[in-house]
Amino acid sequence: MSPLARHYARFRVAERLLLTGHSHQAWPDVARDGQLEAFDDAAREVDEKWGRALARAERVRDGFRTLLADPGGEIALGGSTHELVLRFLSALDLRRRRRLVTTDGEFHTLRRQLARLGEDWLEVEVVPARPVDTLAERLAARAGDPTAAVLVSAVLYEDARIVPGLGGLAEACAARGVELLVDAYHALGAIPFPLPAMGLGSAWIVGGGYKYLQLGEGNCFLRLPPHARALRPAITGWYAEFDALADAARPGLVPYGRGAAAFAGSTYDPTSHYRAARVMDFFGEQGLTPEALRASYRRQLALLAARFDALGLDEAVVTRDRDTSLDRLGAFLALDSPHAAALQRALAARGVLADSRGRHLRLGPAPYLDDAQLEAAVARLGEAARELRAGP
Fold this sequence. Notes:
The chain is of the alpha/beta class.
């Protein structure tokens, strides 16, 4: 049993084969303590609970700042990346610059919303995500006038490929007055993501803790670059006015706080932040730093890949990209199969929880799983694949 597993007793991680690490990771038991604390504070303080709740929110901001190596960063919080992306888009000068550039490898948050905006409202150019090695360079080439923003993932959600060259893309965008928004959801907790070292100080970063950070739902963030401090998003909640209450009234002009305060939402359920604050403290206590997590995932991916290769399965049923080094992947192994969904169902019937996207069967390890669990999961995949190959 993994030494960490005892801290996840409620999720029974030692008894289950949870290869859902790229989607919904198990929560440590302290997450429950955070949820109960939120209830107790509300019961005791009633409407006066908000001072305590906002302190938890600030702890969450500090946690994201640490992960980004951005100690002074302006961090807006939200229940989903979608609401934060909408606020970001609404702060752009889309009347003058009506073009957005993105890729065909984005998660549904961007894919769907940008596709809809492209139908009736804006010009949206979709650049092929593959080959990923040249993606940043190709996006930079398209980031000219009248582009308002480039929106791209740091790690592609379908196959875990790390997108290189984002620092150069940020530099190109900044030189042309184009905003760059990087979706770091599949990066944070999977790979170190220090903004200064990566040359991403001028970029907007969006992400959340539902996946590798084990924070659960409702814990998303938008990191603002320094030059965004005076922006006023058109999609705005009343919390964005808190820091402007002492300002002199300006008739006809909606007031905003400065920086991240301008991108605040409205009344929300603070339970998510109580839970996240406890989990972030737990990560610190257990030494689950980005570097330690990266080393753990690299070792687990190598084990999964080696055990899969040893199965010798028919590549017409399921295979993997062996041309891409595991060092260039995030924290899950994507297998290619025309039967990905059927294999996922067959694995579930054998007690292995994974998921699929199109042709990709995704195996997501986690630091609370041990080697024997990963080996057992791959062995059951072999059974499922051979049964599928044999047919009825």
